[in-house]
Design goal:
Elements lengths: L2 H4 L13 E3 L5 H7 L6 E6 L4 H16 L5 E6 L4 H11 L6 E6 L2 E7 L4 H32 L3 H14 L4 H13 L3 H8 L10 H16 L5 H10 L4 H13 L3 H14 L7 H13 L4 H14 L2
Parallel strand pairs: 1-3, 2-3
Antiparallel strand pairs: 2-4, 4-5
Helix pairs in contact: 3-5, 5-6, 5-7, 6-7, 7-8, 7-9, 8-9, 9-11, 9-13, 10-11, 11-12, 12-13, 12-14, 13-14
Keywords: Disulfide bond, Electron transport, Redox-active center, Transport
Protein name: Co-chaperone YbbN
GO biological process, one term: cell redox homeostasis
Length: 309
């Protein structure tokens, strides 16, 4: 299966819609410049007297058809429409035909000369599509992360799914989707999603954060209420298990500062409790929150102060 078949359909273009057109000086802006803002457009400059052109054009048509709407081909007869070709030829140093110029976002970005073999033409188009999908994917991931941060799990999951439709091994999207499942309480599906991360990426920061969130969610599933746990701690300040559970419950409710204070208090009182369990739990929280989160930065600083006091 080729990369063209693996990449998801372009979201704004129906497959098969005007994939191959004969463009003119009058329609060039519409066919090429404007269309390239939606998907890559290859312009095939040819002439009836050009033998290699007759070899290349069918190859281009076959590859564009196989791309299923992710790219477009615009053919231009330079004998009938010389002005645009002359302008681009001067701009890009073209001295002969067949010449293929690729457009994206309204600008010429790449090209080749001569009748290339099928494989090379396919690789050229695949690279254009991959680059285009990569740029769109980055924008979608930014929106997905923002939705996740605001706990809009439905919007975040939809956005991550869009990225995964284009790249089913995208680590950031898989980790984000797993966190969405955690947010909605579907721990089992979160675990299944995280298991899809490639082996070599299991230690990625985003994956570590998602894994830590899953573990935390599992730990907090059967905890009592914060009020009950606070009462236990007040009744017996040395009930470190109650204080530990309280920290987990506080974190689950989004009170990171309180969770930090509860665990740090255990470290201060009895560092060895539960095989250094409070410090280890703090490290897990830092993984779940991410290295740049304000609570992580503050928490690491406070923990260092306690450990090295």
């Amino acid at each position: 299966m080729t990369m063209l078949e693996n990449i998801g359909e372009a979201p704004t273009v129906a497959p098969g819609a005007d994939l191959i057109v004969d463009t003119t000086t009058q329609t060039f802006v519409k066919d090429v410049i404007e269309e390239s803002k939606r998907r890559p457009v290859l312009v095939d400059f040819w002439a009836p007297w050009c033998g290699p052109c007759k070899q290349l054009t069918p190859t281009l048509e076959k590859v564009i058809t196989a791309a299923k709407g992710k790219a477009k081909l615009a053919k231009m007869n330079i004998d009938e429409h010389p002005a645009i070709f002359q302008q681009l030829a001067q701009q890009m140093g073209i001295q002969s035909i067949p010449a293929v110029i690729a457009f994206a976002n309204g600008q010429p970005i790449d090209g080749f000369l001569g009748a290339l073999p099928d494989k090379q033409v396919t690789e050229f188009v695949e690279r254009l599509i991959k680059d285009r999908v990569g740029d769109e994917g980055k924008d979608i991931l930014v929106a997905a992360d923002a939705a996740l941060a605001s706990k809009d799990y439905t919007a975040a999951a939809d956005a991550y799914a869009q990225v995964l439709a284009q790249d089913n091994a995208n680590v950031q999207a898989l980790a984000g989707l797993a966190r969405c499942y955690v947010g909605t309480g579907n721990i089992e599906q979160a675990q299944k999603t995280l298991a899809m991360v490639p082996d070599g990426k299991q230690n990625d920061t985003a994956v570590a954060a998602a894994r830590a969130e899953i573990e935390l969610a599992t730990q907090t599933k059967d905890l009592g209420s914060i009020a009950d746990l606070e009462a236990k701690v007040a009744a017996n300040p040395k009930d470190y298990q109650a204080r530990f559970d309280l920290a987990l419950a506080q974190n689950a409710k989004g009170d990171r500062e309180a969770a930090l204070d509860s665990l740090l208090e255990i470290v201060k009182r009895d560092r060895k409790w539960n095989d250094d369990g409070a410090r280890k739990q703090l490290v897990q929280l830092f993984d779940a929150w991410g290295p740049t989160d304000e609570a992580t930065v503050t928490g690491r600083r406070k923990l260092s102060s306690v450990l090295f006091a």
